Amino acid sequence: MLSVFGDRQTTGAAVATPPPRGAEAVDAALTDCAVYESGARQGGKVQLEQALQLARACEDGFVWIGLHDPLPGAVELVGEYFDLHPLAVEDAIHAHQRPKLEHHGDMIFLVLKTARYVDDGERVEIGELMLFASKRFIVTIRHGEATPLGPLRHELEADPARMARGPGVVFHAIVDKVVDDYANVIDGLSNDVDEVEATVFSGLRENPTERIYRLKREAIAFKKAVTPLVTPITRLVEDQQLPVPAEARLYLRDVLDHLIRDADAVIAIDELLSGILQANLAQLSVRQNEDTRKISALVAIAAVPTMVFALYGMNFKHMPELGWTLGYPAVIVATFAICGLLYRRLRRAGWL
């Protein structure tokens, strides 16, 4: 267990509905709020203002609150109820934070980037998950659609013996779920990278440059989500000043191993895409050179009859065919023979 962890009306226009505030804002964003004691959930969804008091009334109880895309007012109210550090609350309100770990008194604040791969559009959807952990509560604030926590909550609730070990189990399970979802994104990116690599080296006269750039942009965005998380998780495992018990460190070490593997994989994908892009540009340059050589060879062949017929066109008195019956056919045959020899020579040289 982580032991220390007013409307204004306008004429002729629809009246704008003001955004919910305070408790209404919390209810709009609240996915679940439950109290757990001895690993068992105590009743259904509880009111936010009662949750912490109920958890403290239990001998070893804690509360797990989940918010999804909350408004600033909802985050501020949760911060007031659970006495969250103002700087952490400010980060949760503004979102768009880099993965990081902060330690405020008896509370741990962890920022993770969630991710999912949309294969139809070949894009990575990056979300954000703020995780507040203490000995009496777990608060999750999720932005975006990636890594929903509802199924994870049901899975943990089905195992009371596991939940009985406290909020540290929930903390580890959430981090592990986020990192496991990275593997699905890597698989999706890898499949598309394999396809574009096969296209580049297939010999077909296609130009997948736009697709390569698009995949590389997604890989870079995903790399920015994964690689910075290595430092916070490493600190959770190794920093003895943080209130993380030995059992939790052991499980988080396994998460760290998976995260490092994922970080290496996404870096390799990014480098592979760079290599594929360079190979594709090199092939385009080779194709352009081949086209230029073919055009030059055809121009050289066409220059022979052009020159011969141009010379004959400038002299109408001493043309051979005027005094020799076979003169005109002989010139034509000689011209095409020279063209044939040029074609054969250029063909052997690889220009045609």
UniProtKB/TrEMBL annotation:
Highest taxon above the source species: Bacteria
Topological category with respect to the lipid bilayer: Multi-pass membrane protein
Regions crossing the membrane: 295-314, 326-343
Region annotation (Disordered) ranges: 1-21
Subcellular location: Cell membrane
Pfam families assigned to the protein according to its UniProt record, in alphabetical order: CorA
Catalytic activity from the UniProt record: Mg(2+)(in) = Mg(2+)(out)
Chief subcellular location: membrane
Keyword Hydrolase in record: no
Record keywords, A-Z: Cell membrane, Ion transport, Magnesium, Membrane, Transmembrane, Transmembrane helix, Transport
UniProt GO MF annotations: cobalt ion binding; cobalt ion transmembrane transporter activity; magnesium ion binding; magnesium ion transmembrane transporter activity
Function: Mediates influx of magnesium ions. Alternates between open and closed states. Activated by low cytoplasmic Mg(2+) levels. Inactive when cytoplasmic Mg(2+) levels are high.
Protein name, as recorded: Magnesium and cobalt transport protein CorA
